[in-house]
Amino acid sequence: MKRSISDRIEQYIKVLISRSDAQQIEIQRAELAETFSCVPSQVTYVLSTRFNGKDGYITESRRGGKGFVRITRISSSSPDCTRLQNDLEEMIAHMLEEQHLQESEAQLINYLLSALSEDLDEEQRHLVLSRMVKAIARYNSLHSK
Questions:
Q1: 4-7 contacts at long range (C-beta below 8 A, 24 or more positions apart)
Q2: Residue-by-residue DSSP string for 1-64
Q3: Are 75 and 67 in contact (CB under 8 A)?
Q4: Do residues 56 and 90 both lie within one domain?
Q5: Are 33 and 12 contained in the same domain?
Q6: Among 18, 50, 73, where does a domain finish?
Q7: How far is CA 118 from CA 15, 104, 106, in A?
Q8: Do 101 and 41 fall within a single domain?
Q9: Which of 53, 72, 87, 134 could disulfide-link 24, Cβ–Cβ 3.0 to 4.6 Å?
Q10: Among 73, 103, 123, which residue terminates a domain?
Q11: Predicted local distance difference test score (pLDDT) of residue 77
């Protein structure tokens, strides 16, 4: 059975992400479109429909000549609160290893996350944790260059 171009683009991106230690890639929309002999709007469609928060991805883009699309996998499955908490802990540990944080700062962040989550219902906790994952992913990508 012949797969659609959208399916092929999605699979290509997922392979690139899985090969990345950081579970994050940066690609250029135009280059990806050229690779698949399609228009950039087809790539945009795939990114917006198959790489979003509910599917476990954070997608950030910068348009223009030096523009890029950064895709970060935040979980391997549907991002429930436990998985989001684990993702945050992994991100903080990675930032410690890369010396973007000191031990005391990591402990403070973990304490604040724990304290913040105590009085929230599941929906509110999920919202806070997913926003924290996104914020830390952005911070980490800005400071890892």
A1: 5/36, 5/38, 5/42, 6/42, 6/45, 6/46, 6/49, 6/50
A2: -PPPHHHHHHHHHHHHHHH-TTSEEEE-HHHHHHHTTS-HHHHHHHHHHHSSGGGTEEEEEE-S
A3: no
A4: no
A5: yes
A6: 73
A7: 37, 21, 19
A8: no
A9: 72
A10: 73
A11: 46
Q: In this structure, are residues 99 and 143 in contact, taking their beta carbons and an 8 Å threshold?
A: no
Closest-CA residue to 85 (of 130, 118, 139, 134) = 130
- HSE, side-chain direction, 13 A CA sphere, residue 45: 12
Mutual angle of helices 5-19 and 40-50, in 10-degree steps: 70
Domain coverage including residue 94: 81-143
Q: What are the CA-CA distances from residue 15 to residues 8, 20, 102 (Å)?
A: 11, 9, 33
**Are 69 and 134 contacting, i.e. CB atoms less than 8 angstroms apart?**
no
29, 69 Cβ separation under 8 angstroms: yes
Question: Is residue 17 within 8 Å of 9, Cβ to Cβ?
Answer: no
Tens of each residue's pLDDT in the chain, 145 residues = 568 899 999 999 999 998 888 788 999 988 999 999 999 889 989 998 898 777 778 787 777 666 788 888 875 444 577 777 877 887 888 788 778 889 999 899 888 888 877 788 888 888 888 888 878 877 766 665 5
Report the pLDDT value the prediction gives residue 12, as an integer from 0 to 100: 94
pTM for this one? Answer: 0.56
